[in-house]
Amino acid sequence: MTNDADMLEALVNTGILLSSEHSIDVLLEQTLKTARSLFGAEGASLYLADSGMLHFRIFSNPVLEDKLGPEGVRKAYKARPVKIGPGSISGYTAYAGESTIVTDAYNIPGDAPYSFNTSFDKSSGYKTVNLATVPMKTRKGKVVGVLQLVNLQGLDSFSDTAMRAMEAFGAQVAVAVENATLTEELKKAQYETITRLAAAAELKDPDTGDHLRRMSEYSRDIADACGLDEHTVELIYYASPLHDVGKIAIPDDILLKPGPLDDDEWEVMRTHTVIGADILRNPHSELAAYARDIALCHHERIDGKGYPSEIKGDDIPFAARVVSVADVFDALTSRRPYKEPFPAAKAIEIINEGAAKGQFDPEIVKAFLGIAGS
Ligand SMILES: [Fe+2]
Ligand SMILES: [Fe+2]
Fold first, then answer.
1. In this structure, are residues 301 and 270 in contact, taking their beta carbons and an 8 Å threshold?
2. Cα(94) to centroid of ligand 2, in Å?
């Protein structure tokens, strides 16, 4: 067990980490590691509450992992969802909303509202000595899960401070889980809104929804292969489906013309870029700003021979350069009224030629080839 000052410091640091880290998996993993070292525990596991049950989410226990392997541990835990209520230690903790300290797992008094289930130890060969189970309680007092620490050093002589620190820790994790869940839901809602809006722009084309989904996934993977940070990769993923949103204003007789367009018609068709940018003008979010750049510049070429502005090289926003590769690749490999789909290898060859001829950014195409080849 660390001393009180260290503990306070670790708690503060955890608070900072939890409030800045929005990916729930990274967050929980870090949390368990911190909990183990902070409270001198051999292992830690975390369960989230859902419809009256506790579901295993994540663990950190090197000793157990040595015995069963990471997959083995996960399977062993996963097979055991726990009912919230008296009976089991974790179920009771979530039900009562207060910590449960068990200093000798194999000698729990008969009148306790819970008992220790030995089957896990029996099947895994692990030896549970003691357990501290803490409810993850939000500010409103809602229990969103429990954090269970196992085989803690000196648990029988835990100070009040240590106990309070443990509960504070549980509360911090609860708030972070709540926020992360909310953020994830918001993101999903945002993505759905965007793709629906984008699909509305091309409603007449039944293939469009699939095209948007695929091209946004390619855009994300290419951006990732280019080494962009996770946040930027995500922005490109969410913004890319809006690349052709300006087509909403292109008259049907041009947009849906089965044959090739004449010069005048092409001129109208090309305006979908500036119209898209106009729809997305004065963005209030980073996401909308990315979408505007992409809508405006996804037909620019690296050699300056694209449209609408004939800008070149680095003057073209990076996201738009990524999206142009993804968009063309998907168009090539898809069936269109006027053409059969190209096989992937042929499409990759065309993209490669496009880079050589100044259509695409060669660095981005290189990253694309790295993932397309695999
Ligand atoms: Fe376009
Ligand atoms: Fe497209």
1. no
2. 49
Give the integer Cα–Cα distance in Å for 32 and 61. 9
Q: Quote the ligand 2 centre to 279 CA distance (angstroms).
A: 17
Active site residues: 247
pLDDT bracket for residue 5 (50, 70, 90): low
**13 falls in which pLDDT band (50, 70, 90)?**
low
- Is the pTM here over 0.85, yes or no? no
Å from CA of 327 to ligand 1 middle? 8
CA 194, CA 124: separation in Å to the nearest integer?
Answer: 48
| Alpha carbon of 298 to ligand 1 centroid (Å) | 6
Number of the ligand closest to the Cα of 299: 1
Mean pLDDT of 241-246: 89
Residue that the structure tokens 């509305």 belong to? 200
Domains of the chain by start residue, with CATH: 4-181 (3.30.450.40), 190-372 (1.10.3210.10)
What percent of the chain is modeled with pLDDT above 90? Answer: 51
